TrEMBL record:
Residues 560-574 have a biased composition (Acidic residues). Residues 48-153 form the Exocyst complex component Sec3 PIP2-binding N-terminal domain. Residues 547-584 are annotated as: Disordered. Pfam families: Sec3-PIP2_bind, Sec3_C-term, Sec3_CC. GO terms for molecular function: phosphatidylinositol-4,5-bisphosphate binding. Residues 228-255 form a coiled coil. It comes from the Eukaryota. It comes from Brassica oleracea var. oleracea. Belongs to the SEC3 family. This is Exocyst complex component Sec3 PIP2-binding N-terminal domain-containing protein.
């Protein structure tokens, strides 16, 4: 037999080095090849690439107890053995030799953990590892060693599959090499000693027969006076005796023929009895079949009755639910048909409304089974609920109309709510809104029950509150004018009266302060009323801006700290909210606000006209104040307030234009005067007028003053040119020089920002006089590549270049009034030059893409 790796001492020492520190001693170490097989086809074993491994059997002693282990070792990258895995042999449940391997050198080891078999070193999703030995001797050596250790150390043997255990025992008998085992001395130390494998072999023949069978075999051998070594003679003697017994049996059968005939007769009689029994069984079977059919029929009827009983029970429960749904509680019916709308009873009314809305929705098809929708009782109950709804909506609408009118009448009849002589009274609607909020929830339920009922209610509320607001505005405006102390002598600016200079020094700031106070008090009030009305009357509009607008910083805080726009309620159906400015209620809201605030503008107009009569120049301050408030109104609910401010701004502008026209008329009238004094006296007066106007400028009123300057200067210069013909020539020369200077300055700024662009265009224009356009792209510095580079450097940040152009123009101007007109000229000049450039490029470089003139015009317009 070839030398096995189990006898390799160097391998044993390498394994001991790898197991150093574990206090385990090696019984056997042997080289194997690890692979994973595919068992799909019988008689054929497919393997993955085999990996070299070393299996080492070790024993660890702990007092009188011993533990056996199976270690799997692998070679590291440096060729040194290192532990890979370790298994306890007490978990080994089966040793299986792979029958598909013709060599018989491949086996697997299966362990059992808590009753669950698991292949060593595998998982459920991976094929089990197979250990392949070099030859069958190595296979038998490792398996015999495993079995011996299991029997001696553990006291049990694993199941062996795929190999004849007798054959393995015979092999162990013939191959008994010396094996090193461990023996414990008296002092507890383990000492290795050499024994033969025959001493460790498994007595498999004792495992194949029982103890009683073994004793019977020994007694039989003793009967024949034969030893265990005379097996062939014993076998031959047994054969001869068996032949004698068979011959005796045949002779006995021949002698028993009468007995056989008797048995046959008995069998025939039994057959007849069996046939009779079969006939009777057939009869009984027919009767039983009829009985089964009767039983099935009875069971069918019982099942139908039981099903009918279940259906009747379910039907009764469903009908009870429908009846409960159709029942109208007496307390709700009383509240809906004749209950009081006092504040103490509103909670009960709200509960009745909620129940009514829920009941009506419950009788609709989406919430009600369609099979019930056409039932007469459901139709009648639906009609009854609609009558209840109509009755309640009518009663509630009538009550609210009367309630709104009574609230306003009470406030109008009490003079303490309004401004009086010597006392300006700020309108206070906190108590009014508090009382209205009591019925805000009722209005929401009325909207959910019948949207059409809100129209008359909104008109009634607007009509009543409009009387109150107009009365408050009228009383406040009258007392404001009466309490403002200013000079009543009108100031005449451009007439030659001797007192004009004295009137010009009169302080009329109280006039504009009174106008600002009027706006400060009433504009936030009107915005608040608009916002409260939109919420209170359940308009589905976008969220409103905080009330107050531009003048809200002048409003004193409410003492109670409550926000009047907060109704203190929640929406009935949050899903009904609509956002966006396309809400269908927005138009209706604006119409209602027109009714709510209509007529109040007359009192504002009266204040504007009063201020104009005292000092027309105060129109400038009032225009700025109005513009500031107008820019602060952004909420949709304040739409009418914006219209009111716009009308006031137009009224102020109209009055100021009236003053300017009258002043111009004075100049023209003085020109045609018999005394022929000319326009020269108006120049110093105009300077004083302009000085005073500049003092009154606020916010956007600069445009209003500039327009007045334009009218004054144009009429004075025009008349001056007509009076002094010699000056007309210089006037026109100065105008032409101004236009030329503007053109040169604009061109300089354009060329400074877009120098490369227009220099490139000038080169093309110069060459077009000498060569054809098709030849220009082939000239030095004018190729298509040069064109693309120039466009990238000049137009990649064209918006920034245009902004720099605007800043440069603004920096070089001493007067801001000239900037808009010069910037318009600059944009027009740039577009003309750029359009010429685009036409040149289209003619010379037809395949190149250049930003169009329309795109450039849009860019300039957006800046």
């Amino acid at each position: 037999m070839a030398k096995s790796s189990a006898d390799d001492e160097e391998l044993r020492r390498a394994c001991e080095a790898a197991m150093e520190g574990t206090k385990q001693s090696i019984v056997m170490s042997i080289r194997v090849a690890k692979s994973r097989g595919v068992w799909g086809k019988s008689g054929k074993l497919g393997r993955q690439m085999a990996k070299p491994r070393v299996l080492a059997l070790s024993v660890k002693s702990k007092g009188q107890r011993k533990k056996a282990f199976l270690r799997v070792m692998k070679y590291s990258s440096g060729g040194v053995l290192e532990p890979a895995k370790m298994y306890k042999l007490k978990h080994l449940s089966k040793v299986e030799v792979i029958t598909n391997d013709p060599s018989g050198c491949t086996f697997t080891l299966v362990r059992s953990l808590d009753g669950i078999n698991e292949v060593i070193n595998t998982s459920q999703s991976v094929a089990p590892p197979q250990w392949t030995m070099r030859n069958t001797d190595d296979r038998n050596r490792i398996l015999v060693c495993i079995l011996n250790i299991c029997k001696d150390v553990l006291g049990k043997l694993p199941k062996v599959v795929g190999i004849d255990i007798v054959e393995m025992a015979l092999w162990a008998k013939d191959n008994t090499p010396v094996v090193t085992t461990q023996r414990s001395t008296e002092d507890g130390e383990s000492v290795a000693e050499a024994v033969t494998e025959s001493e460790l072999k498994v007595t498999v023949e004792k495992e194949l027969v029982s103890q009683a069978e073994e004793e019977d075999m020994e007694a039989l051998l003793g009967t024949y006076v034969m030893g265990i070594g005379e097996a062939e003679a014993f076998s031959e003697r047994l054969k001869r005796e068996l032949q004698a017994l068979e011959a005796a049996n045949v002779h006995a059968i021949l002698e028993s023929e009468p007995l056989v005939d008797e048995v046959l007769n008995g069998l025939e009689a039994a057959t007849n009895i069996v046939d009779d029994m079969d006939e009777w069984l057939g009869i009984f079977n027919v009767k039983l079949r009829h009985m089964r059919e009767d039983i099935e029929s009875i069971e069918t009827r019982n099942n139908k009755l039981e099903m009918q009983s279940v259906n009747n029970k379910a039907l009764i429960e469903e009908l009870d639910k429908v009846i409960e749904r159709l029942r109208v509680p007496s307390e709700y019916s009383a509240s809906l048909t004749g209950g009081s709308f006092d504040e103490a009873d509103m909670l009960q009314n709200i509960e009745a409304c909620e129940w009514l809305a829920k009941a009506l929705k419950g009788l609709e098809v989406p919430n009600l089974d369609p099979i019930y929708a056409n039932m007469r009782s459901v139709k009648e109950k639906r009609a009854e609920l609609k009558i209840l709804k109509a009755t309640f909506v009518t009663r509630a609408s009538e009550f609210l109309r009367n309630y709104f009118a009574s609230l306003v009448d009470f406030m109008v009849s009490d003079k303490s709510y309004f401004s009086q002589r010597g006392q300006l009274k700020r309108p206070d609607h906190a108590d009014l809104r508090y009382k209205c909020r009591t019925y805000a929830r009722l209005l929401q339920h009325l909207k959910s029950l019948d949207k059409n009922c809100l129209g008359p209610l909104r008109k009634a509320y607007c009509s009543s509150l409009n009387l109150l607001l107009r009365r408050e505005a009228r009383e406040f405006a009258n007392e404001l004018r009466a309490s403002t102390k200013v000079s009543r002598n009108p100031t005449v600016w451009l007439e030659g009266s001797t007192g004009s200079s004295q009137n010009a020094n009169t302080d009329t700031s109280a006039v504009s302060d009174a106008y600002a106070k009027m706006l400060t008090i009433f504009i936030p009030l009107l915005v608040d009323e608009s916002s409260f009305f939109a919420h209170f009357m359940c308009f589905e509009v976008p969220a409103l801006a905080p009330p107050g607008g531009a003048g809200s910083d002048k409003r004193p805080n409410n003492d109670d700290g409550n926000d009047d726009d907060d109704l203190g309620i929640m929406d009935i159906d949050e899903s009904d909210k609509k956002t966006g400015k396309t809400s269908p209620d927005l138009t209706a809201l604006n119409e209602s606000l027109q009714d709510l605030l209509d007529g109040i503008q007359e009192d504002f107009y009266a204040v504007v006209d009063w201020a104009y009569k005292i000092d027309p120049l105060r129109c400038i301050s009032m225009h700025g104040i109005t513009e500031r408030y107008l820019s602060g109104q952004k909420a949709d609910a304040a739409g009418f307030v914006r219209l009111l401010l716009g009308d006031l701004e137009a009224r102020v502008s109209m009055q100021f234009s009236r003053f300017v026209d009258e002043a111009c008329h004075q100049i023209e009238r003085n020109e045609r005067n018999v005394r022929q004094m000319g326009v020269l006296p108006y120049i110093p007066r105009f300077a004083a007028l302009a000085t005073r106007m500049e003092q009154y400028i606020q916010g956007q009123s600069r445009d209003l003053v500039d327009q007045a300057y334009t009218k004054f200067v144009s009429i004075i210069l025009y008349d001056l040119a007509n009076v002094v013909p010699t000056l007309a020539k210089f006037y026109h020369q100065a105008s032409e020089a101004y236009e030329q200077a503007c053109t040169r300055h604009i061109s300089l700024i354009i060329y400074y920002q877009f120098e490369r662009l227009f220099q490139f265009a000038k080169k093309i224009e110069d060459l077009m006089y000498t060569i054809s356009p098709e030849e220009i792209p082939f000239q030095l510095g004018l190729s298509k590549m040069e064109l693309r580079k120039m466009l990238k450097s000049s137009l990649s940040g064209v918006d920034k270049s245009i902004a720099q152009m605007y800043k440069k123009l603004q920096k070089n101007l001493a007067s801001e009034e000239l900037l808009p007109s010069l910037w318009d000229k600059c944009k027009k000049e740039f577009l003309d030059k750029y359009e010429s450039f685009v036409q040149l490029v289209a003619k010379v470089y037809p395949s190149e893409n250049v930003p169009g003139v329309t795109e450039m015009r849009g860019l300039l317009a957006s800046m």
